[in-house]
Amino acid sequence: MRRGMLSDLFTGVVAKKLTLVETITEKSNQHEFQGTRPLRRLMGEDDRRGIPTRFIWISGEQEAVTEDGFMSWSNVRKGKPRAPEYHLYYSGNAVTELMQPADMLFLALQRDGSILVVITPADTIQNQLVWLFGIEEQPEFGFTFQEIEGKHNAELDFAARYILDELGIEPDEPEADQLDSLIEQFGLVFPTTRIFSELARSSLPGVSAADDPDRALIDWMDREEQLFRRLERRIVTARIGDGFRAPDGADVDGFLSFSLSVQNRRKARAGQALENHLEAVFGAQGICYVRGAETENRNKPDFLFPGQEEYRDPDFPAARLTMLGAKSTLKDRWRQVLSEAVRIEEKHLLTLEPGISENQTDEMQAKRLQLVVPQRLHNTYRLTQQAWLMDVTSFLDVVRVRQES
Predict the structure, then answer these.
(1) Using CB atoms within 10 A as the burial measure, which of 68, 162, 168, 260 is most buried?
(2) Is 311 assigned a catalytic role?
């Protein structure tokens, strides 16, 4: 599957932890960054005024504040005999007002000459952006420059697009014509998620969950995401074309309701799609399971192995039982699975979220929750985490041994 490259979007990036003097506080209101050598490598030597800039502040829960503004790059000693001294000025806005010392700042120069500024106090999104931009060392208080070329020119695969989506960036789809032909049958109506999942799998006949369950799960989810976004674009375009009108003018409530429904559909569909494709993996691997079985206090783990009947049988050994939570994104919701099956002391949780922070994975280990991540996403985690992560194939091996014992 051709997905494009990161260099299609960006030419380079600088990153650093913010200092007090760079943030807007009662003690500082300078609205500028010193034009250090890394920043000069990114911005060049020519003055630029009023550069269109999108500012994003994003937290650990991926709650984001976005505002458009501008930046200006200039040599304040231009025309003087002294060595050049560059400054990067930024417009104050709701995002920059949230900046705090030690927050991480990523400043990326986009292909069209505009700038993307991302500020985050959160470990996970920091890890994800460090990985996405190929920044080899965690930047401290000085700017680190990374050109988006060569070995750092990442393919816009599932993990990269996951992170870009969190930033509100939707790259062009190289396979648009092929995808459009697949969804033509649906017109302007969303099919059920199960039908969409079946279409995603059937459109990739060379992908086998029997041979490589880790690859199959990612490829199927990636394809379903492609199909969904193409159909969503058609439906949204048609709805906007019809307009939002009311007898007394613009139908603002109708527009807001429609926008909210689009966002809610995206979130709900992703979780359902993941469970659909996991069912296909388990079937291809000959694994006995029940989806949504009820345990104590009406809890319903996503998957229970080998099934609900065995779980409720007090004579069935607890050591042969397994549960798996499945969440396309974690945020802080991973703690929900801890109480979903009392008989099972060590629980498993599968996610497609790349680069989760060490703080969270350390807490998972302490609470005997094993994280399962498709093999292709392991390199988005730090080396200290990778040895502990379990891939899909290894999880299936655990379940199979327990079922056959």
Answers:
(1) 162
(2) yes
